[in-house]
Amino acid sequence: MRMPVALGLAVLCSAIGCFRFVSPPDDLGGPDGGSADADVQPDLVWPNGESRANSDPWLMAHHAEIRLLQPRLLALNFVNARSMEQMRAQLLDMIEIIAESSRYHGYADPQAPVALQYQLAYEVDLRDATPPADWPFGNSTRYPRENPVRGMWGFDYEQLFSGQFAAWYGIEDPSAAGHHLDLCALIDRGLVHEVWIYADADVPDSGAAEILEYKPYYNSQRQRLDMPMNRCAGNGCFDAADAIPESCSRSVRIAFFNHSRGPGCFLESLSHGFESIGAWNEDQLPSLSRDFTRFANYRLDQRYGVAFDSWYDCPMGVTCLVYPTDHSVSYQTESGSGDIDPYDPVCGNVHFMPNGRSHYDLSSAFPVLSSCEDFGLGSGADGSDLALTFRISIFTPYRSMARDCMGPFLVYWRQNFPGPGNRARSLDGAPILNWWVYLFY
Questions:
Q1: Where in the chain are the domains?
Q2: Which tens digits make up the pLDDT trace of 18-67?
Q3: What HEC string does the chain produce?
């Protein structure tokens, strides 16, 4: 559901509340922003006239006040067989599903507001007007292929930062007529916050990652550290051969949208990206990881004394978990077998819902006790998070919305991310900030 937006107003009010709102940057830099009355501090929308770019210190300073994120997408269509209109329809549908998944406890609260509403800012046509005779690929000749492949990915990410692609993006620098802004400049100016590659992965071609990110490191006080940025903040790393210009000093996230798969698979890719900044790179954002690792059922070795960190230790394609009771689990993983009792799966991870038996299991009938829906709220009798019975019926409404991969569960999973205005607290009693803002640190 797209939230109504009124451009140019100092304050935007709707059924979900009031926001300080300034028109987002237009294609050539955007207007100056207004500010709310000193005695009235409505919630903030980002980007705005005060802050518009990824990794802006303003985000850290105003993190607790931000209620709505409206990041701007650069979408690149490489699929010769798909029109720009077809791409737009798929991506707008995806944007709405992401928005739905950002409504904190939205499965229980029809009025829960959207926290993350992407804007499809630029749609770039990189198709061939006429593909070469006997062209073997679904993607166009402009799809950047490495030949030979120089690392994990055959997709040449370095080219997205090049002058050639800047010309294809076609976004001119207002201070230099005829000069097109490259990807680093687009991100630095806040004109683009994220890139989605719209491509065909079914006809064998040069492979790309589900999602990659180049991101600064922060300390536990959310202050940026003076050190090289992390090339591995996504689901994998940029290859060493992919030179990222020194002018790129802000977060760059690039996701791959396979046009022939449904939105659930892309939501899974994006969710793996969140696992990366929240658990796989624990030193990236310590203030996020301290809570996300518990939420997503990581650090099982620390919590239960087992020999592995998470259920990703389970081999693919086999049942490795069973639930003798609603508060215990028996496991057989690559690292060994055993039982955990009592056991709280909290919200589970991207591949394993709280009662999952194997990777990608969406049909487990085991009812299990899980503190997911009370995460950080401490509603239990002793101040602990209240464990409620988890059943797969909770995400049944999302089976038609995000129909493939782990999509139906992941809409529900993401709706349990502590969002704007949440009351959740960390184990040490510190307030848990809105997790969605960390995406743009």
A1: 71-289, 292-440
A2: 333 333 444 433 323 333 333 334 579 999 999 999 999 999 999 999 99
A3: CCCCCCCCCCEEEECCEEEECCCCCCCCCCCCCCCCCCCCCCEEEECCCCCCCCCCHHHHHCHHHEEEECCEEEEEECECCCCHHHHHHHHHHHHHHHHHHCCCCCCCCCCCCCCECCEEEEEEECCCCCCCCCCCCCECCCCCECCCCCCCCCECHHHHHCHHHHHHHCCEECCEEEEECCHHHHHHCCCCCEEEEEECCCCCCCCCCCEEEEECCECCCCCECCCCCECCCECECCCCCCCCCCCCCCCEEEEEEECCCCHHHHHHHHHHHHHHHHHHCCCCCHHHHHHHHHHCCCCHHHHHCCCCCCHHHCCCCCCCEECCCCCCEEEEECCEEEEECCCCCCCCCCCCCCCCCCCCCCCCCCCEEECHHHCCCCCCCCCCCCCEEECHHHHHHHCCCCCCCCHHHHHHHHHCCCCCCCCCECCCCCECCCHHHHHHC
